[in-house]
Amino acid sequence: MSAYTLRGNTGDWEVVVGLEVHAQVTSNAKLFSGAATEFGAEPNTQVSLVDAAMPGMLPVPNRECIRQAVRTGMAIDAQINTWSRFDRKNYFYADLPQGYQISQLYHPLVGEGAIDISLDEKNPDASGKRIGVERIHVEQDAGKLMHDQHPTRSYVDLNRSGVALMEIVSKPDLASPAEAGAYLRKLRAILRYVGSCDGNMEEGSMRADVNVSVRRPGEPLGTRTETKNVNSVRFVMAVVEQEAKRQIEVIEDGGKIVQETRLYDPDRNETRSMRSKEDAHDYRYFPDPDLLPLELDQAFLDECRASLPELPDAKRARYEALGVTPYHAAVLTAEVENARWFDSLLETGAKPVAAANWVTSELFGALNRLGKDIGSSPITPDGAAELLALVADGTLSGSLAKQVFEIMLETGQGAGAVVEERGLKQTSDTGEIEKVIANVMAANADKVADYRGGKDKLFGFFVGQTMKAMGGKANPGVVNDLLKTALG
C-alpha cells in the first residue's frame, strides 16, 4: 500500500492508528446473568438482580459468550488461551451499579492474531496488508445515562448493563484513514460470517475507540489520543484524519499532545477533549474473587473450530478458482448475506462467471434502485437460475433478459412464465431473419452502397435496424452472420 502522509507547515507527518473495537456478542443472555439483550426494549426491563448489583448476587459465566469469543479468535488465526482470568476494573459511574467492571486485563481469552485487508477491490492481492490483532478479551458493558428525559435530573437505563462484549484490540499497524476503514469493514465481515456479532453499528452492537498519534517519518511513536465510541466506518476514517491534523497543528505551534480521551462530533467533524487518559493503575485492577479462572478443554476447542463457516478470504479464493474476477469475488463476499445468496445460486448449477456478472450488475443494481437488500430480494436464487438458464440456452438474448428481469421484479413471476405469456422468446429462425434483412437493405439502398464502398462502420446501423424490426427478439449472433453474407 502506498504511504499516507500529511503535509504540515514544517514538513511531512506520518499517522499511526490502532483500533479497539467493542463487539456485542451474539448470545442467548448477558455475560454473567440470564437477562435478555434485545435491542430497543423499554428501559430497565432487561435487568437481572446480578446486573443491578443486588447484595449477595454472584456472576456465572455464560458458556455461549465464551464460545463465540473463542470462535472469533479462531477466525483470525489467533492464539486461544486455554487458561484465562477475569479482573475487576474499579471505577464509579452512575450506570455501573457494581462500582467496577468485570473485564480481562492480565490474562485475556484470546491472544495475538491478524486480519488481512485490501484497499483495492479490483485487485485485492496487490494492495494487501496484514494488520496485527493484539488480543480479544470479554467484558461486561455498562448501562446508559439519559440526560434529555427531565429538566433537572438524569435517568439511567440498565438494559445494557452486563451485556457481553468482545474487545478486539489491534496493533498500531494502521497508517491512514483508508486502512482504518478497510480494517473495520473486514473485521465486521468476519464477525458476521462467524455469527459472533451482528455488526450493527447504528444500534451500538459494534463501536470503535480510535487511537491516533503522529510522527515524523521514521521517528519513534508519538503521544496518542483515544477517541471513544465511534459508531460508523465513515466516522472512524474522519476521526483519523481530523485528529491527526489537529495534533500536527498543536505540535507545529510549539505545544505538546496530551494523552487523553476525546469524543467525536460528526456535526462539526472535529474531536474534543473528554478527560485525561487513565493508566491501568488508576483502575486498581485485581483478579475477580467471585469468578474462577476459565479453563478450556480440547473437546470444547474442537467443537468451536468445527462450527466455523467458510470465511470471507477462503470464499473469495474459491470463487476466483471458479473463474470469477477478483473484483466480483470481493463484492460478493463483502457481506455474508450476499455470499450465502450467491452460494445458493451456484448450488442450482448456474455457471459461476455468468452468475457473478449478473448478480453484481443486474441484481445489485435493481436492489439498490428499490432500496432493498439481498434478504428482501423479490428474486430468489432459483428464480435467478431459471433466468440465467434461458440466456445460456439461447432462449433469451441479453436485452430480452433485461426485459424479463424487470417484469419478474414487478410481478413476482418466474422467468419461463414471463417468456411464454409475453412472447419474449429469442428467435434463431434464419429464414425469418433473412426476410427482415432483405427489407432493411431494400429500404436503405444508399447505405448498402456506402457500406460496399468501404464505410464499414455502417454495419452497426444494419444490425440495429434488423433488431429493431424484430422487436429485439432476433439472436444477435445469427443476425451478424446473416448480415455479413447479405452485405457481401
UniProtKB/TrEMBL annotation:
* The keyword ATP-binding is annotated on this UniProt entry: yes
Q: What is its EC number?
A: 6.3.5.-
Q: Which GO terms describe its biological process?
A: glutaminyl-tRNAGln biosynthesis via transamidation; translation
Q: What class of enzyme is it?
A: ligase
| Highest rank taxon of the organism | Bacteria
Coiled-coil stretches noted in the UniProt entry, renumbered to this chain: none
This entry's Gene Ontology molecular function terms read: ATP binding; glutaminyl-tRNA synthase (glutamine-hydrolyzing) activity
- Do you know which InterPro entries this protein is assigned to? Asn/Gln-tRNA_amidoTrfase_suB/E (IPR017959), Asn/Gln-tRNA_Trfase_suB/E_cat (IPR006075), Asn/Gln_amidotransferase (IPR018027), Asn/Gln_tRNA_amidoTrase-B-like (IPR003789), GatB (IPR004413), GatB_C_1 (IPR042114), GatB_Yqey_C_2 (IPR023168), Gln-tRNA_amidoTrfase_suB_CS (IPR017958)
Q: Give the record's keywords alphabetically.
A: ATP-binding, Ligase, Nucleotide-binding, Protein biosynthesis
* Pfam families reported for this sequence: GatB_N (PF02934), GatB_Yqey (PF02637)
> What reaction does this catalyse?
L-aspartyl-tRNA(Asn) + L-glutamine + ATP + H2O = L-asparaginyl-tRNA(Asn) + L-glutamate + ADP + phosphate + 2 H(+); L-glutamyl-tRNA(Gln) + L-glutamine + ATP + H2O = L-glutaminyl-tRNA(Gln) + L-glutamate + ADP + phosphate + H(+)
Q: Report domain Asn/Gln amidotransferase positions.
A: 340-487
Supply the HAMAP family for this chain.
Answer: GatB
The subunit field of the Swiss-Prot or TrEMBL record says: Heterotrimer of A, B and C subunits.
Functional description taken from the UniProt entry: Allows the formation of correctly charged Asn-tRNA(Asn) or Gln-tRNA(Gln) through the transamidation of misacylated Asp-tRNA(Asn) or Glu-tRNA(Gln) in organisms which lack either or both of asparaginyl-tRNA or glutaminyl-tRNA synthetases. The reaction takes place in the presence of glutamine and ATP through an activated phospho-Asp-tRNA(Asn) or phospho-Glu-tRNA(Gln).
Task: Name the family.
Answer: Belongs to the GatB/GatE family. GatB subfamily.
Show the NCBIfam families listed in the entry.
Answer: gatB, PRK05477.1-2, PRK05477.1-4, PRK05477.1-5
Q: What is this protein called?
A: Aspartyl/glutamyl-tRNA(Asn/Gln) amidotransferase subunit B
User: What is the scientific name of the source organism?
Assistant: Sphingomonas aliaeris
